[in-house]
Structure formats: C-alpha cells, structure tokens
Amino acid sequence: MKQPKICVAGSANMDLVTSVKRMPIPGETILGTAFHTFFGGKGANQAVMAAKLGGEVTMLAKVGKDVFGKQYLENFKSYGIITDHIGQTAEHATGIAAITVEESGQNSIIVVGGANMANTPAEMDDAKAVIHSAGAAVCQLEIPLETTQRFLEIAKAGNVATIFNPAPAQPLPDEIYPLCDYFCPNESETALLTGMQVKTVAEAEKAAQTFLEKGVGAVIITLGSDGALYVSKNKTLHVPALKVKAVDTTGAGDSFLGTFAYFIADGSDVETALRNAVKASAISVQKAGAQTSYPTYEECNFGS
After folding, report:
1. Residue 254 annotated among the catalytic residues of the structure
2. Would 27 be classed as within a structural domain?
3. pTM higher than 0.85
C-alpha cells in the first residue's frame, strides 16, 4: 500500500506540563499535583499524528542547538518523520509551551516561540520540491506569518491540498485566504478572526460564511465536545464528537488535523476524513499529553 505523503511546516515545542486541581486566580500560589515534559508544538503534533497513522511525513521546522532541540530531532526520527528540512540555530532556544491542566481535562497554555520564530520564507523555498511532492500541506501560526504564507503559496502553486490551522489566532492578510483549500480554526479562533459569537453549531456555520467570502475553499471549525463542522459553498456537514471521558485535551485539535491531513493525502473523501479525524481526537483525549496520547491506525479501528 502506497504511503500518503504529508508535508508540515510549523512549530516544535517542548511541553512543560503541570497538573492542578484547579487553575490559580491572579496573584495566587497553589500546589500542583504532578509535572511532566512532553514533545509538543502544533506543527510537530500534527506531523506525529499523520506519521503514527502510517503517513510519509516531512517536517519543516527549526529547533535550538540545545538539549531540547537534540531530543526533539531524536523524537521525530523515532516516528519515522523526515528531518532533512529541520534547521538548528544557536541564536535561539528550542520553543517551549508551559501548560497547566485541570482535573477536568481543560488546559491553559503559554507558548514561547524561540527557534520556531527564526524559520524563514527562504527555508520554505528551499523545500519546494518536497512540498510539491506531498498530497497534503499543513501549517499553523506558531512560526512567522510570512513563512506560513510562503509555504501556502508554494503548496498552492504545486496543486497540493492546503490545510491551514490559524492558531494561535492573529490578524491575517486578505491574500492568505484564497491559498487555503481547508481553513481550520476552533471556536475561539473563529470568534477572534470574525468578531462573531461562536457558541453553537448554528453560530459556527454563520461565522464560516465570513471565511468563504474571503476566498477559502472550505471551512472546518473544530467544536470540542460538539465535534466538527464542515462548510463549503456546496455542502455543510456537522460531525458530532464521540462521548468519552476526557483526561487531557492538550493536542486534541492537532490530532484531528493530522488525521484529516492523512486521509486527504490518501485520496479519501472529505466526509470520511472528517469522521476519522473526530474519532482519532476522541481517542487522544483519553490519555495524558499530546503526541504520547495519539493512536495508531490500528488503534483507531476506523470504519467501526
């Protein structure tokens, strides 16, 4: 069976995770219940998810010449991810994310970009052949916006399916929207980008029209416990979430996107890709961490 090819441009962060019974209020000191380090970063998470399903994944990223950077390169290789286009810099530390997780599974995250923010558009140009060879090209906003945009431009010029996760949300230039075959925010990112309330599926569908008007091919809004909503000019589809007990929601959206990218690169139809992505993300929230919680293809038991 031929492996689907996925190219991911994005971040590689070391997640520093503290478990607490509840979040502290401003100025308060509380006792945590546990501390762990995990490999994270939206781009790397999405790449690992696609690789764990069996995809041939190339990562375009940058890490520091430090302990975390060395460990991260080894981590990528352990999943079979191609690291030819991962640079190292002595001028910046490897990116980190400080994550606090409540007993309920909800989390808050502070990201320090570090080496991720040294990733340049020129490095995307250097990877043009790899990008053009992919069946899906995935990116986010934990690297410089101009680098993400250049990645999308190259992928679009090569007729590669482009999947853009605008996270963390920030103002976007109008010219980036038509580069996106699939524009994939969550509820809060949708609200920030549109100025509209997004608390229900109906509100999400209304907000999605704003992105379609800006030129994206289709919109996929992840809705947490409400699943995911797909909206294009010709089709609207709501895929409900599976009912599971969440242990840790960290990286669930990345699990969704990595799975979606895998099946788009595999040539699957959008509905199949969406349903499989919802299932994989539901499995992921039942374990702690991001990449460590991601299931393999066999564990997902797709189609059942």
Report:
1. yes
2. no
3. yes
